[in-house]
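hi! just following up on the protien thing from before. the input was this:
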Amino acid sequence: MFFSRIIGQEKAKRLLENVMHRKRVPHAYLFTGISGIGKTSTAKAFTMTLNCSAPSGLDGCGVCTSCRKILNGNFPDFVTIEPDGRKIKIEQIRELNRSLGYAPLSGGFRVCVIHGAEAMTGEAANSFLKTLEEPPPGNIFVLNATEPRDLLPTIVSRCQRVSFRPLKTEEIIRRLNKETDLDGSSVAVLAGAAHGSLGRALEMGDSNYLERRRIWLKKLLELNARSSADAMNMAVESAKEARVGLDQPGNKKVGLFDLLSVWATWYRDLLLVRTGAPTGLLVNGDFREQLEKTASGVPLQNLIESFHLVDRAVVDLHRMRNSTLVLENTVLNLRKLGRTNH
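and the predicted 3d structure came back as:
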């Protein structure tokens, strides 16, 4: 919860530092970027410094009353809203507005963080827009969102945009080495598969992701040698994975979206091997021998189509289409594309 401990995001930290130095803090911010890269940690650090009685540079002192409360997770003026199910509902925004009618209990700033702000229903978004237009004094809003285009343009226009970038693989590797007991090979796999998200890498390390990943890749490696009937059975079995993924808020178990993510990294790696890219770019470097063997036997266009096929399956599942039908179509077409030169 200290700015100095947040990995990367130097541009975002500089922007907030300049704001605090000018002592004219905008009432609304839009933090954009994928999950797990420091948006929430930055919001907490921002809250701590704003309310600190004796800040040290960009960081809060860590010892005053408000700092201690924030560090202990019981600061009354740090408010969070998360989607109720898949959406942030009008009732949640109304409850927030009722609480804003009272002055901050600490006497400083109340910071309200809205996670997954793009999940607001139309009613909720319009209600929140009215709050942004006439913000009560002493309140700061932080909207966390992946893409600003998923929000009402009128909400975006009233917020100070702060962009957060995916972390470098090396940054994630250093933190995993410090915070976990995983071996070097596992750390490299997690850092590559996390797509720049430290939070996702840590969640994968705490789950059975590495074990499941090997099973999922083994299935994919055996696919070309299977009969159509066996491929169908594989699809049906794969579809039984829970319709979740570690990148979904609040979920701690691997599922169908993680399976497809692993398959997508496989075809990405095959394309890299086929085009002669440095091996250090591979996510599945521990399968390098199998990657090189597979890449040499499949036309480049088929590898590209296979990658897009997996990507389309993810989109279809997010649209709540039948898991079994999506997996059957995906697996049978992957088998067809992979058997061209056999």
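The mean pLDDT is 91.
DSSP finds 15 helices and five strands in the chain.
cheers
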